[in-house]
Amino acid sequence: MPGDILSRSVTVLSENVFPDLYESGILDLQKGLELGHFTSVDLVKAYLARIDEVNLNGAALHAVLETNPKALSQAAKLDDERKSKGSRGPLHGIPLLLKDNIATLHEEGMNTTAGSYALLGSVVPRDAFVAAKLREAGAILLGKANLSEWANYRGKVPNGFSGRGGQTLCPYYPNGDASGSSSGSGVAMAVGLAAGSLGSETDGSIVSPSSKNNVVGIKPTVGLVSRAGVVPISSHQDTAGPMCRSVTDAALLLSVIAGPDPRDTATLYQPGVLPDYMKALDPNALKGKRLGVPRIFLGDNKAILEAFNASLDTFRALGAEIVDPADFPCAEEMKESQAETLVLKTDFKADVAEYISGLLEVPTGVKNLADLIEFNNTHADLELIPPYHDDQSRFIAAEATEKNDAYYAALAEDFDLGRRRGIDATLQKFKLDAIILPTDGTASKPAAISGYPIISVPLGFQPDDVEILPIPAAPLHTQAPGLPFGIAFIGTAYSEFNLIGFAYAFEQATQVRLKRKAYAEAIPATQIKDVLSI
Fold first, then answer.
1. Is 7 noted as a catalytic residue in this protein?
2. Cross-strand pairs, 292
3. Which of 14, 149, 228, 255 is the most buried (most CB within 10 A)?
């Protein structure tokens, strides 16, 4: 009888106070921790079990490259600290995932490899700045998320593939394209494999996988968040940023990781004291605001166009004025420009060598891009796997570059097209507070070449009768029933506070994320109640 009573009480408790890990937000989890309904150890056990269910088993999403062998012991220490000293704040004891190009302490037991065997076993000198900030706030770094290898800069290979992590898959359709390069971060958030995550973006690598996996992604202004300890592509365009299930969670993580860092000079030019981005979460933030639609950048996907055009009425109902069209003065030039390609491949050659030179140990002996190319050729069985994953053409093109007059002209062209005659000119010409576009397509490029912020939130899903493309998957379906897509908010430098407000107001009014869940085999079953010690 006592056992039956205990069992029934746990059932009642689970129904009332245990948040659903598929969707629960960081603040919901923190409330449960504060009330003692469960512990951080319980959370870590539950998330590890969920990863085990669908990462390599079940749907085999390949979202998580490796987990932290010390996560449970760290959780136990944070539980003890909560009892003895109180909570550090909203991230105390909360498990998060980091993209595998973000350095974490080597002695903790996780690698930092950008998905490549070339950096396996390399010893980083310290946590990346963003990892250290999260750790200081009490977060548990649960594991490393898979990614498009070298943040999709090795060559033309399917999104979400890395030699170490295999092929990441979207959880909304079997063999679906999860986009990239922060593929694993997006997939893990979609089905609740951690409470929050970080990705990184050079051009689209946060917002695109956020769009394709039905989550929220914030790519900040270059200089708001330190890149120190993040495997680079381009010092002019790279930034880390949050990928979460809600604008609230993303704003919370951004508030923690933003700030100046002497190891990244770009962060030393931030405008005064940074705001608390949680204070931007206003459901009325769109009232009286002017949003512009650069219609020349809209693609031709029927479902996305219909959902985007319908969203304009939602914005109007929320009090915004829509300026449509509000095209960039330099739109055609921007679409044709190849300046970004030259800047990225030139930066990558120099920046990756600088990153490797800062490592304390590199067991493979690679020192620069030429060594990486040779490593891949020598270890083709691990890295250059036919028929889809054997390309390193971007590496080879980057190796042939040098910082010459053409490079500096391309850099100036990017800033001119992206900033002066692009985003800033459009905002000023039409007296706009922000620019809105479907995330899929060209939305990321203006923000990328300017270094300005962009936020993606869920907008809709492909209909059930949409044509599945390609058939057969080669190796991924880029179009299929239920594949998600998002809407992007773009602004000038350091306009994150306003953009977060606009994104939050839209998210709260539409609640798109839960209108469709991932396919059944991709959803882990484990919940907190399943791991509690009774």
1. no
2. 323, 435
3. 149
Rounded-to-integer distance, Cα 12 and Cα 221, Å: 46
Nearest Cα to 518, choosing from 146, 175, 184, 170? 170
Q: Tell me whether residue 70 is one of the annotated catalytic residues.
A: no
Q: How far is CA 283 from the centre of its chain?
A: 24
User: Per-residue DSSP letters for 389-429?
Assistant: B---HHHHHHHT----HHHHHHHHHHHIIIIIIIIHHHHHH
Residue 255 a catalytic site member:
no
Catalytic residue among 24, 40, 45, 99: 99
Asked if residue 348 lies in contact with residue 233, where contact means CB atoms within 8 angstroms, the answer is yes
Q: Is the pLDDT of residue 211 over 90?
A: yes
Q: Quick one: which of 296, 310, 497, 330 has its CA closest to 426? A: 330
Please state the length of the chain: 534
Residue 533's CB is within 10 A of a number of other CB atoms, namely: 7
pLDDT grade, residue 84 (50/70/90)? very high
If you compute the radius of gyration of the chain from its CA atoms, what whole number of angstroms results?
22
Nearest Cα to Cα of residue 528 among 92, 49, 12, 46:
46
Model confidence, pTM: 0.96
Percentage of residues in the chain having pLDDT higher than 90: 96
Q: Which of 40, 148, 162, 181 is catalytic?
A: 181
Nearest to 145 by CA among 29, 55, 34: 55
Among the listed residues 418, 231, 243, 233, the one whose alpha carbon sits nearest the alpha carbon of residue 335: 418
The angle subtended at Cα 224 by Cα 218 and Cα 230, nearest 5°, is: 80
**Average pLDDT of every residue of the chain:** 96
Cα angle vertex 440, ends 436, 446, to 5°?
Answer: 55
